[in-house]
Amino acid sequence: DTAEGAGRRVLLKLSGEAFAGGGGVGVDPDVVQAIARQIAEVVRGGTQMAVVIGGGNFFRGAELQVRGMDRARSDYMGMLGTVMNCLALQDFLEKQGIDTRVQTAITMGQVAEPYIPLRAQRHLEKGRVVIFGAGMGMPYFSTDTTAAQRALEIHAEVLLLAKSGVDGVYDSDPKTNPDAVRFDSLDYSEVLKRNLKVADATAISLCMDNDLPIVVFELLTEGNIARAVRGEKIGTVVGR
Ligand code: UDP
């Protein structure tokens, strides 16, 4: 049961895309509520959980760059988008009776605490969910890299990389290739060498250099976050 996860500290990365539901853009409250329910279940079982959320449901800097925008400025738009997702998750977690704090890498005192790693760890010890927003606060980085960095800094034992619509890492795109094969486990170097679409290379190499295991799994299946925390084989483990 979830008691198996008690006392553990994990970092959960949620893609922004998931928050949009079928809509593609913006936040679908039903989806966020379902995610919050899953997280609440795990936290009630005694697992300490920090969360990093992407912003792909609002803006991706690289996509705006292609359309002619300055990359750094559009990356800041991307980072600000992640904060809206953080507030949505915070709201639904609080409705589940879970205490939360949002900490952002770009300070915005009215809506969130600044990112203070020691304080984040104190929150976690008290059973609060800490939601990290605004990525690293730096253009040219991704929220996957942020997730790896935050996991390392707060001493999480694993990075849970939750995806919407795909249940692990495949040797080719399962949406276009019906013969695509899912890996149960993978070495970091294999991910980099084969350019597998797990996370960007910066995030993967940061995990590799610091031996942080990554579990890639499907987010929206009810109970999957708890399964990933318990170490059930529901997706792909990237490690060595
Ligand atoms: N971003 C950034 N620095 C960071 C994190 C994010 O510049 O440290 C920007 C970047 O433009 C990125 C966008 O925020 O495209 C949204 O994050 P991401 O694409 O990682 O979201 P996801 O794909 O996980 O939804």
From TrEMBL:
It catalyses: UMP + ATP = UDP + ADP. Allosterically activated by GTP. Inhibited by UTP. Belongs to the UMP kinase family. One of its GO terms (biological process) is 'de novo' CTP biosynthetic process. Pathway: Pyrimidine metabolism; CTP biosynthesis via de novo pathway; UDP from UMP (UMPK route): step 1/1. Residues 9-217 form the Aspartate/glutamate/uridylate kinase domain. GO terms for cellular component: cytoplasm. NCBIfam families: pyrH_bact (TIGR02075). ATP binds at residues 13-16, 56, 60, 170, 173. Its main location: cytoplasm. Keywords: Allosteric enzyme, ATP-binding, Cytoplasm, Kinase, Nucleotide-binding, Pyrimidine biosynthesis, Transferase. UMP binds at residues 55, 75, 136-143. The keyword Magnesium does not apply. It is found in: Cytoplasm. Homohexamer. Catalyzes the reversible phosphorylation of UMP to UDP. Its EC number is 2.7.4.22. Residues 21-26 are annotated as: Involved in allosteric activation by GTP. This is Uridylate kinase. One of its GO terms (molecular function) is ATP binding. Pfam families: AA_kinase.
